[in-house]
């Protein structure tokens, strides 16, 4: 059994320090403030916590009134995964759009502007960017969250994104180590498995992470995936071979290792969140992310007590927990120093789109990311109010179903009277009946992955060959329709850029 060298209150404080929990509400509940006072060093924010930039600024100020070095983290990738603009859709295109343009200075500028907005609202740790190489086009959870299928492209844009965020004092958390791209299972639902050899892993999955470590990413998030070539028994988040052997020792990473959400089924269904958290810290993780689903005080207390008990029984070395807590505090010190240094240039008041230099960079990037393909027949731009048929697949958990997507709202702005309908495994006949004589704009998302969507689009194009097709997911299917517009993502600005192309006013 490990001999305890710290007092019990120090041990408890260290256990709280390594947790990154969430909560419910747009103001901090009393229990959260109380635990911050007792040692909780990080708080994770989700869409449910954010209404407006002003409200978010007030919330982070409330947290820091309790302790000024608390880390405030968020899952703000831009593109399809947004928490800042969960009810409106993001002002920034996501990774796939940026990778399709392949201009690292544009990616850096987008990340910098996104980081600037986060910093203004008091958020200083972003669980982004995704450095996954999307080598499997059937991947249900990564897709447009990846810069693309080429490891070198993903690497250079990951570095640019890290530089952009950290240049304005927001710590980047590069994810999902050691790479979630070659999976056909969502780790929110089950444990994905990647069975490739070590040579493939080093030549593909690990290339962007090596680059991110070399670029100085402040944090790395682990993936709940089983890589049999590295550890055939435990997912990466719980694997000493992967977190300590590979990430720490081989890649030389000295920053903060954060777990993906511990309530995700890939871990919780087999180990439970308490046991999983103990194993993660023992394996080399420094911070336990929880709160996407479990977001109450009881969860925090259960994990705190599980870590304390594991130290007292000798299952978890006390030195390992102390080291993890020290790494959390070190990152908190870095972000705090940047807040103080940037106080003169980064005001507390939130800035809305279009009110600061570079604030329109998201729309600029979305327009550049469009790929427009004309059909065989001459294309006539839409001048009358069309009918927008949105073929809607089930949203994955990371994206969620709260955030609007599509182009109907933007077309309505350009062509008042535009009507829309959402279709889930519907036939072409129902679309045609609703559209009447209106021109049809069919909006799809990952067409290649959904046979029902392909059938419906085939029927629609056979009856109405002048239909415009807008692909807002992976652009894997062959271009179809009188005009095919690939946006490379479903952010609000991607919808706006597509709508401009439909009416022929694109920049």
Notes on the protein architecture:
The protein is an alpha/beta fold. Helices cover 41% and strands 12% of the residues. The chain contains 18 helices and 16 strands. The strands form four sheets. It has a six-stranded parallel β-sheet. Helix 5 runs parallel beside helix 6, helix 11 (273-283) crosses helix 12 (297-312) and helix 16 crosses helix 17. The longest helix is centred in the middle third of the chain and has 24 residues, at 318-341. Mean pLDDT is 90; it is low at 1-6 and 344-357.
Q: Which secondary structure elements does this structure contain, and how are they paired or packed?
A:
Blueprint: H1 8-17, E1 19-20, H2 30-38, E2 42-45, H3 53-66, E3 71-74, H4 95-101, H5 104-120, E4 125-126, H6 151-166, E5 171-177, E6 193-194, H7 198-203, H8 206-214, E7 219-222, E8 226-227, H9 240-250, E9 256-258, H10 265-271, H11 273-283, E10 288-289, H12 297-312, H13 318-341, H14 361-369, E11 371-374, E12 387-391, H15 408-414, E13 419-423, H16 428-435, E14 440-444, H17 451-463, E15 468-471, E16 483-486, H18 492-503
Parallel strand pairs: 1-10, 2-3, 3-4, 4-5, 5-7, 6-8, 7-9, 12-13, 12-14, 14-15, 15-16
Antiparallel strand pairs: 11-16
Based on secondary structure, the structural category is: alpha/beta
Distance between the termini: 68 Å
Strand order of the largest sheet: 2-3-4-5-7-9
Overall body shape: globular
Biggest beta-sheet profile: 6 strands, parallel
- Residue share in β-strands: 5-15%
Number of strands: 16
Rg to the nearest angstrom? 23 Å
Helicity, in percent? Answer: 40-55%
Q: In DSSP terms, counting alpha (H) and pi (I) runs of 4 or more, how many helices?
A: 18
Would you tell me the overall average pLDDT? 90
Q: Enumerate the spans where pLDDT stays under 50 for 5 or more consecutive residues.
A: 1-6, 344-357
